[in-house]
Design goal:
This protein is of the alpha/beta class. It is built from 3 helices and 3 strands; from the N terminus they run E-H-E-H-E-H.
Length: 97
């Protein structure tokens, strides 16, 4: 298996510190999400902001973390459905898949 791809939610001091440590350990930070940090790749959790991640790590506050978890559940739920439909279409229409 290749290196783990991480999305960091919350890119303040702790998120930036973890990004550095993750990369030192051979992990790839594929995106950062923070509504207030100008250095973050994205301002909100959505399909585009987490699409490349194997795992998302939240470094926000406890109140925000619950809402973020709900948003992630919705995004990944939709992603699972898209994969299921894609596999179903490939198996029906393509002799190569």
């Amino acid at each position: 298996m290749g290196e783990m791809k991480i999305t960091l939610i919350g890119f303040g001091k702790m998120g930036k510190a973890i990004a550095g440590l993750a990369e030192e350990q051979g992990f790839e930070v594929v995106s950062t999400i923070d509504p207030t940090e100008k250095d973050a790749d994205f301002k909100e959790i959505n399909k585009n902001s987490v699409s490349m991640a194997d795992v998302c790590i939240d470094f926000t506050n406890p109140e925000t973390a619950v809402e973020n978890l709900k948003k992630l559940a919705q995004v990944f739920s939709n992603r699972s459905e898209e994969r299921r439909v894609g596999k179903e279409c490939r198996s029906r229409w393509s002799p190569y898949h």
